[in-house]
Write a structure and sequence with these properties.
This is Beta-lactamase family protein. The chain has two domains: 372 residues, DD-peptidase/beta-lactamase superfamily (Beta-lactamase); 88 residues, Lipocalin, CATH 2.40.128.50. It has 474 residues and is of the alpha+beta class. It contains 15 helices and 21 strands. The N terminus is likely disordered. The protein is globular. Strand 5 and strand 6 form a beta hairpin.
Length: 474
Amino acid sequence: MTETTETPAAEQDIRDAADDGQDPALTARWQARLDELVAEHGVGASLGVLHHGRLVLEVASGWAHKGAKIEATPQTVFQVGSITKVWTATVAQMLAEDGLLNLDQPVAEVLPGLKLIDEDLTRNVTVRHLMTHSSGIDGDAFIDTGRGDDNLEKYAAVLADVALNHPLGVTMSYSNSAFILLGRVIEHVSGIQWDELMRQRLFRPLGLTHTGTLPEEALLHRAALGHLGNPLAPVPEWGLMRNAGPAGLIHSTPREVLTFAQFHLDGGLAPDGTRLLSEQATSAMQIPQVEVPDKWLLAAQVGLSWFLDEWDGERVYGHDGNTIGQSAFLRVLPDQELAVCLLTNGGDTLHLYHAVFQEIAREFGGVKMRQQVDPADPPLEFVPADYVGVYERASERLEVVERDGGLVLIHTMTGELAHLVQPEPLELPLRTFLPKVFLTRRPDLDAWMPVVFYEIPGGGEYLHFGARATPKVA
């Protein structure tokens, strides 16, 4: 197979789409377009579009595993990464409706004996804080606690040594750790281990056959492998440690991710009409809870795990996901009854996402997607000394230095996964965008990423980058 020509597998996919009630001409056109984009920006990708309650498009392109020459098909399972967080939060909502959980109850009351690094945090952090990335628990404490069914219980125990990134509730900082703790909360109150809980409350009721949480479940299907490096090559590890499950270990296909999205569009109804969650509790997940300091990367606000935004005056909610060499994107435009899912496994996936979703939103919803940001032209004036310093948290060091009258961000990953995702520091020049907001981009990506300098209530200088809030330490 070449990455620029239609393959026999793609031709079979078009025939299958026709048998599934999809428009063959639409499928063929988008198959060619995805082939073109994957050849330019990625390794492999699978795309699904849901419109007015019907799957209208399902195509895949490129390699599921480039090294083994395994092609991606619509039935290939990809890791959806942090889109998992919405699934975990949805089950938390179900348990709250069952009377087993109160979102505003301190977590320590749910998990007796819980000890976090700060006594006030231990006493006051609530389930809602966990679901809205406002707990302050450092977000990237990837600590392997084994493959046993007690992995989340063991993880909760080691959180006593995980740093507090910011005071409770004062800002938004993306926290995988908080969602892993949320997973422990819901398995504790339900009495059912997290992986099985997801099967019982979501996977089976929604009729999902290609969705799971464990690598041995993915092996039952054609599974995509991540790709990293320059040149892009298959990663040496398929996925993260098991305790990352509630934050990012679901694997699935676009069709089945969109079945989950339709469940939310239908106000908590399963495909067979069974009510799994009340309409009120479902819509509550889309109510803004926390403002995002960086409103350009993901969204302007966080709901109960959903990221909330507007495109062309239209409401949008969704989530992204990143694991080892795989990236996933889900967006829902509820007023257009439109949902789009793109699953990928290597390359400039952010550029691929923007290209695909911009065209899909326009074609199916008549909506103009929020445009990518670009540096100010001409550049804004600023005083470099106001920003120079070291910003650091548990798994990331961000040093801002002055160079030739401008600023450079030296980005160093220091966590357990640094050797896989970024083994060497990156030097990233900063360009002005707005007052106190700069833009930069990685050498392997075309898209600009915001770097926001701000102060939190009560004082304290922070840098918001990659959805994380990092305090100034020097």
